[in-house]
Structures
1.
Amino acid sequence: MAASPTVTISALDAGQITLPEHMFVTDADPKKKNLVPSLSFLIRHPEPDGSLTNLVFDLGVKRDLQYSPAQQKELDIWQPIITDTDCAQSLRNGVTDAAKTVDDAATTNGLLLDPAKDVDYIIISHAHWDHTGTPSDFPSATFAVGSGTLDLFRNGAGPAYPAKFFNDDELPALRTIEFPPISRTASWAWKPLGVLPHTLDFFGDGSLYVVDTPGHIYGHVNLLARLAERRYVYLAGDCCHDRRLVSGERDIGLYDDGHGGLRSIHTDTAEAKKSLERLREFVKSKADEGIEVEVVLAHDPIWRRENAHKCWPGKM
C-alpha cells in the first residue's frame, strides 16, 4: 500500500506582542502580562514532478507597524510589540536560534527562500492585525481567507470590531480567494473529518485540511497537516491564546466590555468554546487510534521556547 501524502512544517518568527493574561484565561493575575510570539508557519507540499509548493499560514505582525490610526490606538493594549524578526525575514534567513539546532546549520548562510518568488500560497487564519503581516512582501503569492473575511475587512464586525479597525485593501484583491460558505455546495466543498464538521482538503490528497473554526472572529480557520502516517500537526491560530485552555485547566477569560458588561477576546464566546471542545475531542479520538496530533497555538511562548529545532530551516 502506498504511503499517504504528507507535508512538512517549519515555524517562523513573525513578531512578538504582549498579552494581559486576565483577558484570555480565568483566575489570572490582573496585572500579569506575557510577551508571546505571533507565529507563522511554512508548509511544504511535495509535487509529483519533484518540486515543492510553498504555503505560509499567517504573516504575524507588520514589520513597520504601519497600521491605521484606529489600529495604532489599539496597539497600546498589546505593548511592548517587537518586530525584530518578521515573517519575510524568517523565510529569507531562517529563525536565529533554529540554526543552532538543525544538522546543517550552514544552510542558514545566504537566502533560504525568497518571499517575493518562492511562496505560492498564503492562508490567513483571520483578519486581526497580528496575523495579516506585510502582504506586499509576497507579490507572487495567492492569498486565501475564510468565508466572510473580505466583508470583514470592508465593513468590520459590529461594535466590538468596527470597520475602522480593519483595512479594506489589506490583501491584494486580484490575488485573494475566499473559501466558500459552509452551507454552499461546490466542487471545493466543506466535509466532515471525524468530529470536525467542516474541513476542506486543500491539496486534494489528504495532506492538508483547512478547518472552519468559528467563534474568535468571522472567517477564522485552522489547519490540520499530516506529517507522517500516524502523526499530525494542528495549527490552531487564535482558537485560544493559552495552552491551559487546550488542556482544560482554565476557561476563556472575561473582562469589562466598556459598556457595563463582560466580554471575551472572541466575537462569540459560546461558539469559541464549542470549537475548542471539538479540538479536544479530535485530539483524543486520534490518540485512541494511535495517532499523535500536536496542537500549536499562534501565541504560545512555551512551545516556541521549547521547539527552536522545529523552526525554519528545521521542521516539525
2.
Amino acid sequence: MNTAAEHDRSPAAAYARSAEAAGRAPSIHNTQPWHWRVHPDRLDLFADTTRALPGTDPDERMLLVSCGGALHHAQVALRAQGHLAQVRPLPDPAQPDLLATLTISGDEPATAQDVRLVQAIQLRHTDRRPTVDLAVTAEQVDELRRIAGEFGVHLHKLTRDQVSELAVAVSRAEEAAAADPAMQAETAAWTGPGRPADAGVPPEFIPDRRPETDVGEREFTARGALAVGGGHDKSSTYAVLFGEADDRAAWLRAGQALSAVWLHATALGLAVLPYSQVIEIDGSRAMMRRILSNLGYAYVVLRLGVADPDHPLPGHTPRFPFDTTTTIDPS
C-alpha cells in the first residue's frame, strides 16, 4: 500500500490495512487460500478455491483453518488501529465461499498488548528446527489455553504417553501421504522448484536432513537447505487444539484460535511447529480422536518450545502481493 493510504483514516483504508496484515497468516503449504474484498463499510473474506488441495485436503478442513487464521490476523490488525471489530462467520448460505464479514463496531485506543500482537504478525513463522533444552512453563500453557478458549476451542497439553501415540499417528499419516500420488504431486507443486514465486515453501525453510526428534516432521518431496542443528524435542510441549464440532464453522473458529495461540506464543518467545498431517489423513485423524478419548475433534497439533538461537531462520516465506489477494470495491 502507498504512503497516502497508510495515513488514510477512513474505515475502508483500515479494512485494507487489515487485509494486508492478514496476508502474513499461516496456511497449509503456504498456499494462502484466501481473498479479501474491501468495501467502504465492511471487509469480506472469501475462500480462494483455486489454491485448494483436493488430494491433501479434500474436505477443505485445512483451507478453512488457514482462512480462519487470516481472519484473526485481520482482527488483530484492526484492533491495533484502534477499532473494535464484529465478525459474522459464514454470513450467506448462498455464497459458500464467503467465509466471514468484518465490520468496525466502535473505536477504542489500542493497548500495549494489541501492539505486541500486531508486531507478532511480522515475527511469527513456522519453525521446523528442533527445540533446545528449555521447557515451556505451566503458566505459558495456561495462558495459551485461555486464549484458545476465547474462540470456543480447547487446548490440551499431551501427556508423555499421548506424545508417543502422536508419534505413531504422525508416522501413519506420513506413510499414507507417501503412498498417495495426488498428495505427493501437491506437495511437490508447492514446495518444489516449480512452486509459485510468491507462495509455497522454499528449500531454505525445509530441513536439510531429518531432525532427530521423538515426533517426526512432515516429509517433503526433496531435502531442503535449513540447518537443523543438533537439538532434540525432549523439552518441547505438544498440544492439540480441538472442539466438539467438525464442520466448516468449527474449522474457521479453529483457525482463529490457532492464529491467536500462535501470535501469543510468539510474543512469549516460543517457537511453534504445526502438525496438520495427522488431520489430513482419515486414519490418523481417527487416532487423534482416540487420543482425546472421543471428547472432541482434533483441528491441529502444535509443538511449542524454544528454538536454537545459533541456527536462525533465513527470514519469512514468500507472500502474494496485496493486489493478488485483495479487491478494493469503490462503491
3.
Amino acid sequence: MLTQRWRLLVTAALLTPPLIWWGWGSSDRTRAPIESTSGERIDFFVVQAEVTRWQDNGAEAHRIQTQGMHHLMDQSLTRLDAPEVQVPAQSGTAPYRLRADTGRVPDSHQQVELAGNVLLHDNPHSGSAIKLSTERLTLFPSEDRAHTDQSVLIQRGQDTTEALGMDVYFKEQRIELLSDVKGLYHAP
C-alpha cells in the first residue's frame, strides 16, 4: 500500500508544475495586447481585409480593402496598410476610388485619413476621368466630402492643375482649390 501512495505522490509532483504553467501562464499571453516595435498596443489585427460600411437605407456607403489593419487601443483608431477606398455611385454621383500607402480610421468612423501617394480616381458616366494626387487627404464619407491642406495635382486628359489645399464635394461634383492655383490647359 505504501508503494502505491508513493507512486501517486511522485506522479502528482511531476504533473503539477506543467499543469500550473499551462493553466495560468497561457491565459495571460492570449489576452494581452500585442506591442508593436513603436510601442503601440494593438488589440487585434486582420490581414487582407475588406470592410463594407452601409447606409441607413441598406445601400453600400463605401468599401475599404487593405493589406492589413491594426486596431490601436490607446489611440482608439485602426491603422490601414495600403488601403483602397471604393465609393459606389449614389443619387447622381459617379463612383470613385482612393488609394494610399497608409490610412487611419478613428473608432467614430466619421472620417478616413489617407497618407502617402494618395490617388483619387473618379469614374464618370461620360467625359474623361479626373485623377487627383496629393500626400494627405481626409475623406468624410457621411458628408460625401474630402479635404487636404497639402499640394494637389489634378489631371484630366492632357490638362493639369496644381494647387495648395482642396475641398472636394462629391454630390455636387465640385472641387474648391484653396490657394496657389496654376493650370495648363490644351485647346481642342
4.
Amino acid sequence: MPIEIERKFLITGDAWRADVARSETMLQGYLAGPPAARCSVRVRVAGESAFLNIKAAAPGVVRDEFEYAIPLADARAMLAKLAGDVVEKRRHHVEFDSHVFEIDEFSGSNAGLIVAELELDTVEAAFPRPAWLGREVSNLSRYYNLNLAMHPYSQWSVAERNADDAP
C-alpha cells in the first residue's frame, strides 16, 4: 500500500528563494473528506497536469496515499462543479543538500502562509535543516490543505497561528 512520509515546517525569511529550481501554480479542491470519511479525496491542477488524490485522514507524518493522473479538463470541471473551497498556492522546488523541499506559498484566503514539505523514505530518515526551515508543524492538522480549505489562514486567530498543539 502506498504511504506518504512527509514533514512540514514553517519558513523563516526569504533566503530559500535564491535556490528555487522551478515553481508551479496549483489549485486543489476537496471532493470528499472528514468527518464523514476516513480519507480526503482531492483533485489538483498543477501547471498543465492534473491528479486525483486519496489520502488517509490521520494526523502525523505517515499516511496512506494514492494518486492518479487524470485529464486536465476533467480536473477543471471537478474543481468548478464538485469541489468546495479551493486552495490556491505556488509550489517552489528547492534542492538543499540532496533533498528537495517543496515550499508552498499560499494565496487567496490562505495568503501569508508559507510551508515547506519534505517527503522522506522512512520516519527515521535524517534530513538537512537549512537556516530558513522554521518550526515543525507536521502534527498540527490545521496546516493540512484539507483544513486550510475549510478554515483558511486568514481566519486564524493569533493564538491559532502561534499554538504548538492541534486545534
